Amino acid sequence: MKLNINDTFNKELPGDPNPENFPRQVVEACYSNVTSRIPSQPQIIHVSDEMLEAIGLTDEDKVSEEFLQVFSGKKVIQGTEPYAMCYGGHQFGHWAGQLGDGRAINLTELLVDNQRWALQLKGSGATPYSRTADGLAVLRSSVREHLCSEAMHHLGVPTTRSLSLMLTGDDVLRDVMYDGNPDYEKGAVVCRAAPSFIRFGNFQIFASRRDEKNLKLLTDYTIRHFFPHIDKGTKEGYIQFFEEVLDRTLEMVIHWQRVGFVHGVMNTDNLSILGLTIDYGPYGWLEGYDDNWTPNTTDSQHHRYSYAKQPGIALWNLAQLGSALVQLIGEAQPLQEILDGYKGKYQPKYLSMMRSKLGLQTGKPEDETLIDELEKLLQVIETDMTIFFRNLANIKTTSSDLTALIADAFYKPEELSDVVRKLWNDWLTKYRNRLQSEDRTDQERMQSMNAVNPKYVLRNYMAQLAIDKADNGDYSLIDSFYEMLKSPYNEQPEYEQWFAKRPEWARNKVGCSMLSCSS
Ligand code: AMP
Ligand code: MG
Q1: Class of residue 314 by CB neighbours under 10 A (exposed 0-12, middle 13-18, buried 19+)
Q2: How far is C-alpha 50 from the chain's CA centre?
Q3: b or e along 448-486 (b: 16 or more beta carbons within 10 Å of the residue's beta carbon)?
């Protein structure tokens, strides 16, 4: 197995001189060298063939003993020094101090076909950043992270990727519902991949400690490697860097809103500096469209990270990053101006994204009202977001029985009162009339809508079915979902059974609608 190693993070940035691995505050360092915990009986569950190829490996490598050992944490890649990164973060709006890679170990970085890949094991043991936790991950959360990372990529959403999912052979104790009933679960390790795993929190930790020297080193490093067109070491460069991070974050959130993805834990330590979706924990997809919905049980009271709040929370997080960068720039004003521009950038992009979902090629002033009305209507009776938009594409400019076309999206069609039916009919009629002023054919419009409205997403209950099977040693559903979610916009009639509303049994089942942070 030959990897093209090009490790820069721990070559160019200062590390922790203390070689010991116990929980502690690590200062004046970007990372600590650590070795992963040796799994007792590693076993491959699934490998993303796309990521395998992307990092320059072959099918032969995939079945090698070395692959199993390296990506389960059993063996260190020759010539590398694995490390855990130091970062801090705001959790649920409050500064939490040092957090860091408590259960992630960066193996190394690669350069393959001009693309950089940092490889990181998640769940392979404690680090100086583990605080009171064990550094491990369980099968269920690892299945969710592995499948969803790859699915999001194919949905066209910027994201970290996942190379492999393995069992460690060791059991891990977890109290899923935080109700004093802990139980043993199978331990697992995922190998994540991204150009970089640097988060907002990596900058914040230095700013919080008034460590300007390392704040500057880290920012210059990030610009040099990931924003190479920006001037290094100048005030103007730092300002431009901040603006580009804002633009990328905004772009990512627009994609989340488009596909109905709710991250669930948008703490500043879970926001990538590259605008990638990172840290798949208690995430979920809008099934019945409810913009106040969050999948995270920890957030069920305040709904801080609900679907509708994601764009605003992204801005709040950017403001925290901005506060950290003020220490480099020496003044807040230019950053404040960039933050003030967020709304003005977001709105037109959101509008154009929604127009694309509705298949509107041209822009008319009345579109905003049409969209506002739709967003309200979708919440009058429980309506599946994915099915609604997918079926909406079937409308023809000559269609008459309009509500029938989207009726499959209603969870309780029997509750469709005459009043609500009329509201829907009115909206759909308005929409159909609006379509008549477009000059595309019904067929062309349908194709363009189907390219932005996915047919298949990884609903929580589906992931849970795959997890339950995997727990019994049957990985077939993981394989099927991985294949299906490679082409989420294609019809794929062989997978039609997954183009369906969440079944009623899953409505309140643990793991199927809401999730705790336990992972
Ligand atoms: P999260 O919000 O889940 O991304 O995690 C917040 C912080 O807790 C991060 O610093 C994680 O590395 C850390 N963490 C989460 N789970 C564990 C665990 N099982 N062991 C050690 N650290 C953990
Ligand atoms: Mg995290």
Answers
A1: buried
A2: 18
A3: bbbebbbbbbbbbbbbbbbbeebeeeebebbeebbebbb
Cα 482 to Cα 137, 145, 311: the distances in Å are 20, 12, 29
DSSP structure class, residue 186: E
Cα torsion through 256, 71, 32, 316, rounded to 10: 0
Paired tokens of 20: 């010991």
Q: Please check whether residue 457 is in contact with residue 259, taking contact to mean a CB–CB distance below 8 angstroms.
A: yes
Q: Tell me the C-alpha distance between 453 and 337, whole Å.
A: 34
Return the ligand 1 atom nearest residue 270 CA.
4
For 392, the enclosing helix (H) or strand (E) is: helix 385-392
The CA distance from 103 to 489, in Å, is 34
Tokens coding 60 = 């032969």
Query: Pick from 117, 83, 63, 76: which is nearest to 10 by CA?
Result: 83
Closest-CA residue, ligand 1 atom 18, reads 135
Provide block-wise average pLDDT over 10 residues at a time, the chain (519 residues).
Answer: 96 95 97 97 98 98 98 97 98 98 98 97 98 97 98 98 98 92 96 98 98 98 98 96 98 98 98 98 97 94 97 98 97 98 98 98 97 98 98 95 95 94 97 96 98 98 98 98 98 98 92 88
- What is residue 86's DSSP assignment? -
Distance of CA 185 to the CA centre of its chain: 24
Q: Are the C-beta atoms of residues 494 and 429 closer than 8 Å to each other?
A: no
∠ at Cα 192 (81, 106), nearest 5°? 15
Instruction: Please say if 408 is a catalytic residue.
Output: no
| CB neighbourhood size of 20 (10 A) | 9
* Euclidean distance between CA atoms 9 and 108, whole angstroms: 9
Ligand 1 geometric centre to CA of 175 (Å): 15
Q: Pick the catalytic residue: 7, 269, 279, 384?
A: 269
> Which residues, judged by CB distance below 6 Å to any ligand atom, belong to the binding site of ligand 1?
99-103, 129-130, 133-136, 265, 267, 269-270, 279, 281, 517
Instruction: Give the separation between CA 13 and CA 5, rounded to whole angstroms.
Output: 17
Contact 453, 360 (CB under 8 A): no
**101, 129, 175, 517, best to mutate for ligand 1 pocket (most atoms within 8 Å of CB):** 129
Which pLDDT does position 516 carry in this prediction? Answer: 87
The amino acid at 64: S
β-pairing verdict for 104-112 and 94-98: unpaired
Cβ–Cβ under 8 Å, residues 330 and 213 = no
